[in-house]
């Protein structure tokens, strides 16, 4: 395996979307600053980009990451930047998450027509999302809003807001605030969801910088890591892993680091819902940041005690199931 000399550029594998490229450029800048090395972006196409099918129909986790991981393993690229929420919880053999940089605001947001909030949209209005987690939590609010399954890049989704229904238009969409922040589109937001009403996806707003475990970059990238962000997402992902839920399951989790008398503490809350949002199990826990994985694991175990596994096995009977898979 060749190790690039100090004079060759570090090759950073990225997906082609505007968000992926923006996130990759952010990391590339940080790598340039910390290593003094040149970094070039190499575009890698993933199944998640080329298929128009609903993401929930893929079954396998990580449709966006497989091709990037192949490029890392066969040496086409030296590092890859992923949205952490798109990464399966199972470790990838031969690969290491060398850095998890400081996280953006992890909350979900609404972009609705005419500047409206969810509560202001008339019953029967349509909300576009392909995320069972967002759909279930929206249904649980009981506002009488319809979920319409949509896909596409952030720009495509924004373009559907207020467009005619015949052209795939909807009254509102959900997006991650972090993506809009990175793309400079915070102006489009009409409501920021309070995590009390909508818990974000585990890892939302955080990036993962991945490389081969045996690559010298693993050490060089360590300064890009933010220990508090890493602890928070480790706890959130432990919840997902213990619940044996993938990225298409209606599970939300948010860990926050708070300063306690004996140092930092993690506060974690999580929810699992039936797909129609009719039933849910919600729990919270706190514990030491140094034991993030244990804290997340115990939280998931509390949820299993409350029937989380049985709840996830309940099929959805409401009409919005069809829409989710449309
Ligand atoms: N599922 C696609 C995806 N993966 C990461 C983000 C946003 C950026 C982030 O959460 O870090 C998005 C778009 C969205 O959910 O609005």
TrEMBL record:
Residues annotated as domain Porphobilinogen deaminase N-terminal: 10-216
Stored InterPro entries: HemC, Porphobilin_deaminase_cofac_BS, Porphobilin_deaminase_N, Porphobilinogen_deaminase_C, Porphobilinogen_deaminase_C_sf
Keywords, comma-separated and alphabetical: Porphyrin biosynthesis, Transferase
Cofactor binding description: Binds 1 dipyrromethane group covalently.
EC identifiers of the protein: 2.5.1.61
Cofactor: dipyrromethane
Domain Porphobilinogen deaminase C-terminal: from-to ranges: 232-304
Modified residues (S-(dipyrrolylmethanemethyl)cysteine): 247
Signal peptide: none
Source superkingdom: Bacteria
EC category name: transferase
One Pfam entry name: Porphobil_deam
Reactions performed catalytically: 4 porphobilinogen + H2O = hydroxymethylbilane + 4 NH4(+)
HAMAP family for this protein: Porphobil_deam
Similarity field: Belongs to the HMBS family.
Annotated protein name in UniProt: Porphobilinogen deaminase
Origin organism lineage: Bacteria, Bacillati, Actinomycetota, Actinomycetes, Propionibacteriales
Gene label: hemC
């Amino acid at each position: 395996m060749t190790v690039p000399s100090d004079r060759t550029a570090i090759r950073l594998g990225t997906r082609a979307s505007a968000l992926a490229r923006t996130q990759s450029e952010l990391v590339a800048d940080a790598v340039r600053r910390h290593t003094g090395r040149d970094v070039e972006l190499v575009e890698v196409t993933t199944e998640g980009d080329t298929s128009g099918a609903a993401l929930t129909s893929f079954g396998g986790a990580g449709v966006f990451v497989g091709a990037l991981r192949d490029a890392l393993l066969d040496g086409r690229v030296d590092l890859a930047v992923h949205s952490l929420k798109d990464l399966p919880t199972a470790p990838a053999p031969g690969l290491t998450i060398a850095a998890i940089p400081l996280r953006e605001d992890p909350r979900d947001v609404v972009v609705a027509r005419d500047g409206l909030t969810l509560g202001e949209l008339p019953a029967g209005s349509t909300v576009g999302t392909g995320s069972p987690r967002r759909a279930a939590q929206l249904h649980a609010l009981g506002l009488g809003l319809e979920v319409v399954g949509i896909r596409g890049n952030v720009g495509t989704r924004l373009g559907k807001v207020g467009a005619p229904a015949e052209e795939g238009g909807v009254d509102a969409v959900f997006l991650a605030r972090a993506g809009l922040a990175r793309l400079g589109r915070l102006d489009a937001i009409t409501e920021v969801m309070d995590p009390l009403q909508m818990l974000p996806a585990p890892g939302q707003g955080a990036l993962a910088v991945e490389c081969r475990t045996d690559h010298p970059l693993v050490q060089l990238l360590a300064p890009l890591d933010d220990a508090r962000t890493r602890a928070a997402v480790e706890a959130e992902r432990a919840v997902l892993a213990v619940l044996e839920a993938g990225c298409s399951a209606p599970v939300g989790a948010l860990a926050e680091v708070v300063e306690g008398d004996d140092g930092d503490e993690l506060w974690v809350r999580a929810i699992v819902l039936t797909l129609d949002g009719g039933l849910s199990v919600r729990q919270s826990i706190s514990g030491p940041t140094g034991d993030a994985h244990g804290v997340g694991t115990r939280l998931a175990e509390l949820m299993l005690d409350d029937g989380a596994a049985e709840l996830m096995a309940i099929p959805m009977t409401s009409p919005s199931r069809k829409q989710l898979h449309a």
